[in-house]
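debug: dumping io for the single-chain case to check the tokenizer round-trip. Nothing else runs in this session.
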Amino acid sequence: MIAVMLMSVALIAGLCVLAYTLAVYALPFMLAVEAARFAYATGSGLIGAGLVGLVIGAVAYGLLVFAFTSLRSPVLRLIVALVFAAPAAVAGYALIHGITREAVPSEIWRQIFCIIGGGVVGVSALLRLAPPMNGPPT
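debug: decoded output
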């Protein structure tokens, strides 16, 4: 019985890490899903829609990273970073809201946890674009 409880805690922790990692890439994922839905609705079939979504998601992520690294103006870099991080923060908020829906009876505490979770995921998405502080100059 204890082994099953420990395995379930490990599984939940692993799923939270996976969901957190995927939430950081929310904008490219959302663009990929919408492109795949559009391609499927126009008759490309399941495999074609999947390929279109995969390509669009990779291109969107590549463009965001390229724009962030090629821009020199701090204001423009901040705008690109916020475009990348805002959907990630919303995804983090929704993730925590889904996890705590039945576990936290107080609506106020649930909102507090959701806001903190969304903030952590949004800041993490910002930090993924930021260069390392003590790294070699590029």
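debug: round-trip ok. The chain has a mean pLDDT of 83.
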